[in-house]
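Quick start: what a row looks like.
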Amino acid sequence: MSALSFITGAGRSKSSSPAAPMLSRSTAAGTSSSSVSPVNTDTMPDRYSFPSNPSANPKAIITGGTKGNHYRFTILTDRLIRYEWSPDGGFEDRVSTFALFRNFAAPAFRTVDKDNRLEIITDQFHLEYDKKKFSSSGFSVKVGNDEWRYDGNSYGDLGGTARTLDGAWGRVDLEPGVLSRRAYAVLDDSKSMLFDADGWIATRKPGRVDGYIFAYNGDHKAAIKDFYRLSGNQPVLPRWTLGNWWSRYHEYSAEEYIGLMDDFHKEGVPLSAAVIDMDWHKVHIPSKYGSGWTGYSWNRDLFPQPEKFLKQLHDRKLKVTVNDHPADGIRAFEDQYKEVAKALNHDTSHEEPIRFDCCSRKFLDAYFDVLKVGLEKQGIDFWWIDWQQGTRSRIPGVDPLWVLNHYHYLTSRRNVKTIERPITFSRYAGAGSHRYPIGFSGDTQISWAGLEFQPEFTATASNIGYGWWSHDIGGHWGGWRSNQLTVRWVQLGVFSPILRLHSTKSLWNSKEPWNFESYPSRIIKDFLVLRHRLIPYLYTMNIRAAYESEPLVQPMYWNHPHTEEAYRVPNQYYFGPNLIVAPITSPDDGITLTSSVKTWLPEGRFVSLFSPHIAYTGNRHIQLHRPLDQIPVLAKEGTIVPLDSTSTLSNGTPTPEEITVLLVVGKDARFDLLEEPPVPFRHHENPHDDPRKDFTSTPIFWHQKPGLLSIGPETTPYSRYHSNRLRHWKVKLIGYTATKAHLEQLASGYKVTEVDGSIEIDLGPVFRWNPHAPFEIVLGPELQLDVLDFKKQAFDRIHRAEGWYDDKDKIWNCVADTNSGSVQERVERLHHLNGVYASLKNSVMEVWAADERAEGTAYGKEIWTNTLGAEGRGELGKTEEEDWDDYVLV
């Protein structure tokens, strides 16, 4: 049985022909302080229209100065302040790429204003300023016991993200975010691009200073909420973006590409997006025109009938994007050259190129409304903007990437009838880029070092509000071929914001699952299927990210800001509110036949979704060991995760016919499943104060004390649309099994099955809407996770390990021979066994010390073995080596 079947109860499913494409209400690029503003697609605003409210509340402004030296402070909240200095007396009230909404309610504050000294005081900070040009000696802000002094730089020592991972072998430098271990973070906005009232780009006057101090003193979530209030929320993504994307830099023909899509269908691997890299257009062009990197004319040798090809992809329920390197503009060999030239009054007699000019509104209008609109009518759904030419344009301060991202996103509103919501696919351009998802992180090299950095890179991006990275899963180029590396990267991709398989041109490098050996191939397929099964969970998290300021992926310290250990596991993260993911980013050790990762668990009790036999007591570090078909995903007591358990998964992301509720008992739990409204109403506008009411909602409750599970009733924003539609429901109690007697009573009248480490209850079809009451089932009072049988787990790990049989006896006796000493003595003996690999000792220690409830547990007495043979105890507060090596004999 596959490890994934423990979760879903379903094997790999074949694809079938799904329903018609889903439609839903679109959203505008910007947001108000509380929501994304709706777009009426019948009277679509142009690309220069987006919500904003950039002028601050006059009651929150303090200004002053004399000739050549002027200042302005805006107290946005009692913890967020804008500071400005100007030599000319002018200040900036236009929208910047970062700040769209500065009109906050004025907080309580007081001032002390003297001849050469200004103080601004709130309950959270104390600002002092000497009324001169900003300097470290004359401008400071005290927050708690910490003090910031002006230096002209942005600061946030917890990191943000980076423009690209192009060429990265491993770690890259990160730009700062707005979170810090200091009491403050600083975002300098002095050089950002602006937008005028008519929505066109503008630049700043040189010499002015414009910045923001986030004085949140470790309250990370509050800082991010105000970041989004100021800069705009993340928009809701179309549902299909959360499925599997296929991408490869390869000269596909139309026939080859369609054949590949059908191969995925035959292999039972669903897809939702088809990416065609740059060879869709003419690449081999006469040298007089330059390189073939930029192009907008279909390569008819490969794609003789583009409309037919795109229709074939759409018929397979796939959204389509193509690569665009726009830097070389539109040249004379292009099919659209004369048409674009006519729109721009460009002389074509000498075949002079129409140069890319992001600073020309006239050029951009022709670029979108002449050049690209025809390709979109053929069937291109959205654009992969692959800008790699730096930050400069003919107007200083205007970054072409910003211009491309902003106007592509706004222009994509015209395609919402096919793509459901606005979207673009491009690199990160700086603070504020979260408004233009989805991010393309660039061409990483294929290495363990590259994989090791990506979890941290993805998590810290949330520190600058950037929640929707799409990485080249499996790596793009270079490096070496490794089954293990590919599997581990795909597993990370499943528990990442966006999963897009990708690779470069190479005879040897492609990510089709069936190109790998049998065992890793099966694992890759199973995890890609799991990604689609997770979409009910992911889509709800998508809405949560947009309207509750909670990105899908969050560093551990977001939820544990005052716990030191949360800052020491940068590769570990929350995936939604209750799932902790600790990706495997190293090869197996050849002894235990597992890979390991050092993990910190917060206080509470957790169960491993992929090995539900194991319950862990938290509030400590622990080393987790997993075979190739498992990734550490730990769910806390009181967790609900809905999965699409429809027997046959299809391309696209249709509404599930069957849902399995993964339930981790032990605490009360709630999950509000959010989905698109029914098909006839998805394109209808609704004037709700709370935009979340525009979605169909199904509340799921677990009441721990009585053991009552409640599902529904489903509600939609359209009260006139209700029917007795049915949906099949199952419940899987992860990490809970029962005695035979209890099993018979557990859900009388329902099919109850014990799956390895869990119990599944088939509730059958349930009415999705009942105006009177939810569907309820009583499973038993105060159900608790199973107490770990650590001896069985230790035996299995010792048995599986490769090594000397005599060593196996020695290790087993330490765990099982209760007559040979106390637990503490036997733990010490295991630690000091000579000639035994550290990895095997640690693997056994993991299960021996996992559950404090188990009789004879080593919990609180565990010793982890590191490379030096020194002791690294698992209790918090004890000395630990930062890195453990599983390869060393001690």
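That is the whole record. The longest helix spans residues 361-378. The mean pLDDT is 90.
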